Amino acid sequence: MWFLVFCALKTIIYGNAKHFWILSLRIDRVLLMAKNFVAIAYKRGILQNHADQDIRASNAKRSITHCYISWKMLNSPVKKVRLIRALWQLRIVDRVSKNVLLSTVLLEVNDAYGQRHLVRALLDNGSQPNAISESLCQQLHLPRKKVNILIVGVDGIESSANHEVRAKVQSRVTNYSAEMDFLVLRKVACDTPSHEVPVQKWNIPASYPLADPHFCTPGRIDMIIGAGYFYSLLCDGRYSLPNKGVLVESVFGWIMTGDIPAISSDAVRCNVVAVRPTIEEQLERFWKIEELQ
């Protein structure tokens, strides 16, 4: 691929007839690759006309489709370079646009008066603390406890939590329930998934009650249940769908997760969260040790 690019560029810059001849001999192979890439892209949905489709895929579609239809449209080295560039862009899009469904569940949470509310939560073994959104906390009228906790996210980005609440979490499909502590954050996660996932032909067995019946539709996440509970919430059942992720049994129902067909997106979700002790907590711990000594 890069050999062709080199030949084409050298032809443009230096007018080297030898390299132009070499490139011309290989252009049939490039055109065949173009057709194959376009066919694969359409099959995988990369080049569908969605309003939010990846601009690189869109450019690749226009460039490749325009170029491979007619040999006459490739009558200059410049157009050949554009074709090769478009092919390379499409290869990149196909490689990086793999998506993973995160483990979302629909559960019930009791408010301060004992009333149950349906809440969409994310099970995240990359998070040390549990977290609840400020808006849900206000809706539930849960009593708060003051804390001063520093939260460290991806790339060392820091934020803080000033309140903590305790909430009773219950399953919709089993008799599981537990009281958990949650840090109150303005927003716990982005809408998940980032794009609508076409699942009409997935043939998910009706005998598997889904933990999140709306796993394929972008929606708000108001809770994160972290690593402290994550593995205890999972059961033994697994059911793989060919090239469409895997169903994992949990106390909240069957979670749809894993790799899925590509969805064009420039955003990648990563919810790793760690708690770092504050200076006040470190000083308090120091004085306690001093007193014991």
Written description of the protein model:
With 293 residues, this protein is an alpha+beta fold. Strands 2-3-8-4-7-6 form a six-stranded mixed beta barrel. It has a four-stranded antiparallel beta sheet with strand order 1-11-10-9, with no helix packed on it. The radius of gyration is 26 Å and the shape is globular. The protein has seven helices and twelve strands.
TL;DR of this structure?
This protein has about 290 residues and is of the alpha+beta class.
The SS-based structural class is alpha+beta
CATH superfamily of the largest domain: Acid Proteases
Distance between the termini: 70 Å
Query: How many domain regions?
Result: 2
The percentage helix is: 25-40%
InterPro entries: Peptidase_aspartic_dom_sf (IPR021109)
Protein name: DUF1758 domain-containing protein
Organism: Anopheles stephensi (Indo-Pakistan malaria mosquito)
List keywords for this structure.
34% helix, 293 residues, six-stranded mixed β-barrel, 7 helices, Cathepsin D, subunit A, domain 1
